[in-house]
Amino acid sequence: MLDIERLLSNRVQDIETSGIRRVWALAQACEDPINLSIGQPDFLVPDSIKQAAIDAILSDKNGYTQTAGDPCLLDSIHTRLHTQYGWKFDEGSHHAAMVTSGTAGALTLACLTILGPGDEIIIPDPYFVIYPTLARIAEAKAVLCDTYPDFRMTAERIAPCITDKTKAVLLNSPANPTGVVLTAQEVADIALLCQDKGILLITDEIYDEFVFPPTQHASPAATNADVLVIRGYGKTYGCTGWRMGYAAGPKALIDGMLKIKQQTFVCAPSVLQHALVGAYDIDLSPLIERFARRRDMVIDFLGDVTELVIPEGAFYAFPKIPTGHNMCGMEFISKAIENDVLVIQGDVFSKHDTHFRLSFAVPEDKLELGLTTLKTLLS
Ligand code: PMP
Domain range holding 292? Predict the structure, then answer.
């Protein structure tokens, strides 16, 4: 038999998946766990979007699209970014956009386009799990910007991480796994710092619509024309499996990303591009109110038994395991799983192992049961 292990590249061997695997291994023992580990919304795709997907198939829109995306979907992205930040996408404009295979697809293309051996990218700690991996795939180094204990990735915290090898800063607000949303001032300060240092600012805004009033989402695109904005449709419209997202930024950068896209994934799924053309006409406010109420439940249950940074967006909370419990993340997670609640230990998202992530993208009755158990375990 072929020794496949011997053939695997260092790139693959380096990828760390053991943290989440440990949780799933333990979870096998649970019959019907309350799953607060999942980073995907529990609501259904709006009917109008489903219907548009069906219509696209039936009207034979099943072939390749342009690499940058179908013109109708691109148009809606252009209009969105023009309305929000005044960006223009006409012939000869500074900006361009492209549709990608998920937000992860956009992040992958961005890293492969910008980074190479010896380069550095600054990412927050805690981070979304794929960030360090993407840097490694590009043979670059992810430099962790420690944001404990309030999880705010500020210009002040980023500045000391910058070296002459830094190519980019990766920002994520609202953040996974903490739910932290940066203020307009914080974001503008980071945009200015990157501009001053000649560094690309990549802003992962996959949760831009999941912000709980009165907090508002702030993008560095409002003050810096050279940022790379990355957004997704999956979380916002309940279609994570469709793998749809987009990137927009300086045209020269998007052109670089398009070169890689053209010779790898070619285009995002054509039918689903057609399906999402009307997405921005959908009113999400009832949904956001519901998520805000769930966030409030997390605060009500856990606010006085843990150190909890209040999530102002996304659908995650990242509570601290009280020091008095003398437990690392994995020990706490094992206890939670013994009690049929799945959450994820902090070291999957961080070099620290002092917190855990829970997702409140679950129905209220389940959330209440899960939070009741967690409160008991943390008290
Ligand atoms: N960025 C962040 C911060 C995320 O939380 C996720 C998904 N969990 C992604 C990117 C990837 O999203 P997509 O499914 O659109 O690729």
Answer: 4-44+284-378
Question: From CA 6, how far away is CA 12, in angstroms rounded?
Answer: 12
Check if 238 has its Cβ closer than 6 Å to any atom of ligand 1: no
Do 203 and 346 have their domain in common? no
For ligand 1, pick from 235, 244, 359 the residue to mutate: most ligand atoms within 8 Å of CB. 235
Give 330 or 215, the one with higher predicted confidence: 215
Among the atoms of ligand 1, which is closest to the Cα of residue 107? 10
Number of domains the chain contains:
2
Kindly state the tokens that stand for 306: 């843990």
CATH number at residue 321: 3.90.1150.10
Q: Do 100 and 242 belong to one domain?
A: yes
**Does the predicted TM-score (pTM) go above 0.70?**
yes
Q: Are residues 35 and 69 in the same domain?
A: no
**What is the per-residue pLDDT across 159-209, written as a single tens digit (0 to 9) for each?**
999 999 999 999 999 999 999 999 999 999 999 999 999 999 999 999 999
Same domain, 26 and 70: no
Query: Rounded to the nearest whole angstrom, what is the distance from the C-alpha of residue 174 to the centroid of ligand 1?
Result: 12
Is pLDDT above 80 for 21?
A: no
Identify the weakest region by mean pLDDT among 2-11, 150-159, 197-206: 2-11
Instruction: Give domain status of residue 39, yes or no.
Output: yes
Q: Nearest CA to 369 among 346, 344, 340, 343?
A: 340
Residue 23, in any domain of the structure: yes
b/e burial code for range 106-117 (CB count within 10 A of at least 16 → b)? bbbbbbbbbbee
For ligand 1, whether the C-beta of 127 sits within 6 Å is no
Same domain, 245 and 292: no
- Would residue 38 count as lying in a domain? yes
The torsion angles phi and psi of 343, rounded to 5 degrees, stand at: -135, 175
Which one, of 152, 150, 161, lies nearest residue 308 by Cα? 150
